[in-house]
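fyi for ur records
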Amino acid sequence: MREKPRRSLRRLLSAVIPALALGLAGLAAAPTAQAQVHPDSRVTQNAKALTSPDRQIFHSTGKAGEKVPTTHLCATAHPGQASCFAQRRTDIKQRLASALAAAAPSGLGPANLHSAYNLPSTGGSGMTVAVVDAYNDPNAASDLATYRSQFGLSACTKANGCFKQVSQTGSTTSLPSNDSGWAGEEALDIDMVSAVCPNCSIILVEANSANDTDLGTAENEAVALGAKVVSNSWGGSEASSQTSEDTSYFKHPGVAITVSAGDEDYGAEYPATSQYVTAVGGTALSTSSNSRGWTESVWKTSSSEGTGSGCSAYDPKPSWQTDTGCSKRMESDVSAVADPATGVAVYDTYGGSGWAVYGGTSASAPIIAGVYALAGTPGSGDYPAKYPYSHTGNLYDVTSGNNGSCSTSYFCTARTGYDGPTGWGTPNGTTAFTAGSTSGNTVSVTNPGSQSTTTGGSVNLQISATDSAGAALTYSASGLPTGLSINSSTGVISGTASTAGTYQVTVTAKDSTGASGSASFSWTVGSSGGTCSSSQLLGNQGFESGNTAWTATSGVITNDSGEAAHGG
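which gave:
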């Protein structure tokens, strides 16, 4: 008699439990569905993650320029191939997410990068950033999910349409062979895009190999899939044959293409020297007590490791580059953190063992790509590499450090204004990565042309500039000959040149809105050879001119004061 109630209870539970499970499954699926229907909720979640005080905390992993042990994830490139530039620290133990517990991973996180570069916590919705790399990372999607979850960012998955992983032909199923080295590069790239622009969609385009043609095909596929920003963290030595690749793979008006400058100190790398891309150098980024809260210098670890820069031997100079020391394409244009000693947090489990600290200009290129995406869609006919040149006042100028010793100083050494290792500087907001200025103002500086003077000669050169709104301008200059300075209010360069040499000068005029313009020119200071008065040249002027008798002076060899004056 008592068995019947038990059977009835079993029947009841057998009916209720599946229904309850379906209900719970529906609740679990709700966030994804909600993210698709209400994208604003993603923006709100990401803004909170980027501005939360507890996520601003950063525990330094090293000092700027400090030699820390790293492994280079990709093999050295052979002719016709490229190598990725990612470096992973080996002195910091890698940890899986399950072993991390509540502790934050080492390295810079999304909130740190937003703080350092004054980036908006909203923005990027509707923008797609493509990352082009070689070979397949089978754990890309799951590792990205872990990275974003750790830092409180919204989910970016294949299921909700935020993340897509394709081959160089656009296939989502026939992907290239796996490669543990390039997988680490891919993890770094998509993590950095997520960190800077968490509201962006991401397309990971995987080339069949590291051959130039395969990577170029992947580049074109990224654009064909609709990306308005494409990040590339790879390259190799220049070759004259590569100039044809500019047109075949990188000439995409209306698309911002970022390329790492390389990690082997001074020396031009391709495709960073393509005239159609934004070449991205590397810095060491450290916390500071200054008003910004951060400070940067050129990344240089050793004589063979540091940010790349260089004067191309083959690629033509784009019209917006006005430095005079390099007649062809000069890299870099802008820069961002790359020093492994002050590196970024990355999660990779294919070839890596979880959380690690990464560096190299492989980090700076996707960071700048993310900034371009935050800035919005580029002009349809523009090459966005030119944008920073119109907004030099909206970048943090990096003025210390070098990546070598060059006969033309700014090729290797940071200075006020433009230089090779860091370009015009690092992001200070997104204005420098847009077509228009903050107020729509345009500042034009008239190039005075090449200048020359001699040591000891006084200089007074008026620099002329105009502001489209008639606003007052403030002038600055870099590379002036020793002894000269510019009046910040009038634009007059004056002084007395004291040291002979050839100088590469850049003059910048800026208004109160941040709009700016620049002009670069060379200034040659020649040696005067000294000037002597007639009294210095002639010891007895009257005698030597035939007018008077010799006048004895001390120190002469013989005293023939009685010699009559005579003509000669």
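The chain is about 25% helix and 25% strand. thats all i got for now
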